Amino acid sequence: MTASIGEGKFMGLWSGKAHLGQVGGHVALVQDSFIRPSDTDQYAIGDAITDSVSAATALEWTVGRVRGGTGIIATALLIMGSAQATKLDSHLLIFSATPTVPHDNDAPAITDAEALTLVGVVDFGGTPDITNPASGVLGNVVYAQRSLDIVFECAATSKKLYGFLIAQNTYTPVTVETFAVTLGVLQD
To answer: Does residue 114 lie in a domain region?
Structure first.
């Protein structure tokens, strides 16, 4: 099936059998957050930013309307509970199955099987869209990505996607800094 410009972007493409042609007929705004460890260890380029130095867990979002659901991630927000002088530049890796999440400040070692479940990467560049200029934990920053068009399909028995952040610059966090990631999703 092909869609013309007049039919709307992606209309009819990637839609499931029960709702053929209804991609975007349902919308979800989903958020997950974590608090990073109680340290101020600087991140190097390629280090994971997670919730633990010994038992890290993935961010997870219920994005499917049904198990095995499909759709499009249209927007993403990264909200950080501090405003450091050097702003974080990071990537959010999004998977359709739970990946092995690296410990905080460790480099990820994504397996071939995990790479096959990667549905997209969101770039949260080094310049925030909104900044509360108070320093450290008194401030906060928000990074917004629009028009992402990341197509996803949840695992057959799941409605969820999973992810974690990776630093793309050297960043010195504050202790127990809060990170929240919100996805805007067009559901099939």
So the answer is: yes
**CA–CA dist 13, 72 (Å, integer):** 11
Q: Could you tell me the two tokens for 141?
A: 């920053």
Q: Give the model confidence (pLDDT) of 134-182 as tens digits.
A: 877 788 999 999 999 999 999 999 999 999 999 999 999 999 999 999 9
Q: State pLDDT tens for residues 111-136.
A: 999 999 999 999 999 899 999 978 77
Q: Provide CB contacts within 8 A for 149, sequence distance 6+.
A: 9, 10, 72, 73, 74
DSSP assignment string, 102-140: PPTTS-----HHHHTTEEEEEEE-SS-SEEE-S-BTT-E
CATH number of the CATH domain containing 46: 2.60.120
Say how far apart CA 62 and CA 57 lie, in whole Å.
Answer: 16
